[in-house]
Design brief:
The complex is a heterodimer of chains A (about 290) and B (about 475). By secondary structure, chain A is mainly α. Chain A folds into two domains: about 130 residues; about 160 residues, no CATH class. Chain A is flat, with a radius of gyration of 19 Å. Chain B is elongated, with a radius of gyration of 38 Å. In chain B, helix 3 crosses helix 4. Helices cover about 35% and strands about 35% of the residues of chain B. Classes of the chains: A mainly alpha (about 290), B alpha+beta (about 475).
Chain lengths: ~290, ~475
Amino acid sequence: MMELLLMKTATGLYALATALAVKYLFNRDERISLWMLRLLVAGLVLQAASFGVRLKDFWAIPENRWFMPINSFYGALSFLALAVAGVFAVVEGRNRLGILGAFVIPWALVCAAGAVGRAATMGGTEIHGLSPALQSYWINIHPMVLMTSYAAFANAFGVGAALLIQEHQIKSRKPTELCYRLPSIEELDTLNYKIIAFGFPVLTVGIIMGGIWAYNAWGRFWGWDQKETWALITAFFYAGFLHMRYVKGMRGRKAVYISMLGFASVVFTFIGVNYLSELHGYLSGRG
Amino acid sequence: MKIFRSVRFNIFLGLLIALGSAVGTFLPQIPDAPEKVSAYQFAHPEIYRALAVFGLFDLYHTWWFMGMLGLMAFDIVLCKLWNKPPDHGIIALPPELTREAEIERHLAQKEAALRLKPFRADLTTEMPAGEARNKARAFFEGAGFHLSHELAGQAGASFIATKHRAQRWGSYTAHIALVVILLGALIKGLWGFTEMVPVLEGRSRAVMSKPGWQVFVDKFTIKYYDGTYEPKSYSSVLRVENGSTVLGEKTIGVNDPLDIGGVRFYQASWGAGGMFRSVTLKIGEHFLQLPQRTPGKIEGTPFTVAADMLLPSFRITNGQADSDGLDLKNPAVRFTFMLGAHKTSPLWLFENDPKMCMVEDADGNLSRAPVPPFQLADIDPVLFSGIQVAYDPGFKVVLTGSILWLLGMIGTFYLHRRRLWVVVEPSGQVSVGGWSSRGTEEFSKEFDALMHKLRARLDARDDFKISRNPLAEVAP
């Protein structure tokens, strides 16, 4: 229960960080931004501790030893929350834009709250033995790599949303203070591109790793399973974004729309496909 | 041909492939779930007929879907052959008859060429041109740049300094990788095969795709997590023979197949098919072990009893006995008691619920029976091991493509190519044009710092100037 308690507290901290991030949009008090970061980092630390407790309990089952505890929806959601918050901490640490918190931290909060909600429905944090197919070192690599890319795309989505708001502000006759607070469209556009240029290779390499695992476990590299197919569709969207930007020089709003379609596909790949795929369905219990 | 090289056309094609793929995830597909396709056909015959015309129930193998993938591969090759990565010198010119004439012409074109670079620095040094060139060369080499396209003569000197040169090939490698991966898939489609071979423990079965090959499962072992029917491991002692020759043997488990010359035998699934070696009936204090369909006498009574059928996951469908699957989730066995030529109605007993008993009438309909004085104590089922036999001669090609993709991605997105065009004129005028694969911003500070260091190295005058041309070409 310690794991869940830590997770709940971390979720609470993410919620507070989100509230401060939204407040900071309209209030240029740097202390708010500072506290937002402090709460986010505190949430990250607590969540990491929760993950540590989870590892200890998970590894108590001999078959699970040294494998990552993400064979359940709770495990996947909580890891994703950790990754989104972690990637944002890196992006924020490097770019010091502050204002982006309001657009990205909510995703960490949604994932963390989703995990807490799932634990409430399932009556626990879903620690159970790995099915034989998942007892492979690939479970430590393939889902982790993919979720890192999802986290990057969630960050890019936040940046894209900020860009759309900024463009709306600039075009409107009465721009509010927000217009002066948000980074320039060019800056947001570059950041959106940079995050996707990091996430896209990670996504595709993650898909390929899944193929190699599938070949070792089931005898085929690619089987058009729903999860595989939707991951490919996601990759198509982001490849389209990168090509339009690189080759056609597309910038701004239109480019953001394409990347947002990509993110919608990410969300569907992560959650929606659970209802379609048996091989990859967290909800079907097969991990 | 022009349309196939168009980025817009290929993005449109990519979107069509994505859309087609998405449709396939919402409809049952014949290779994955033929039974679901049949159920769909039964439930919606009209819609089924309309969709089946386009092959939507085996979408990923339709000519139109494969055609789109093939066209995409063709377009990638075409695009990449057409647009060789430009890597000319200061300006692309045909070679002159003499070296000196070539240098002169390059220098004459200098202004026009450098104007096209996003970064530019101009400085003047008192040093002789030869010394300035050598110092500039040494400076850029020391800063980790690779020097190329070197020209030096009476008319002046020029060279190109580049860092992370491999980035130039990143996009090529990645696109070629996609074609290689598709090629691997094509090879599998043409010469590979996949076949599911369920083999009962202790029995054997022929592999249809490899005539003469016989798969033996000498032993099948399954272990469950305590208190559940979730398997924690399952494995088969496997032997493959061709006539009297043993081709290979191994205890295979999930993620650990047997490989015979590229033909791989995977532990894919398992199940109870309805056969059993024996069941144990507890009658009072006595235990009676019964092989399948072999009557046994109940001690101290004139009755005999026989067990004929096992349902691994018992459920009632339309009032009759049925199984929910092949897992041993709710195993039930059917018994018939006999007295001479007389038989009782068949009774179903359950391993998980000793107090439950169901009686089956002549039409197979079930009804609840009172708690019987005997229980089903144990079942020793004959399990079948689901062996997936697969031969994929394209896998190594796919793997090569995957490695190329990884290298291509690293090249394209994680390497940062910087290119500097350096021109030294006899007057001591040194001009540097700069370009970066990551656009202007990222390189800006680095360019400034480099130029300040170069200025110090060449002991240049104060009229040192750095300028930007944001409208300059994006490509080098």
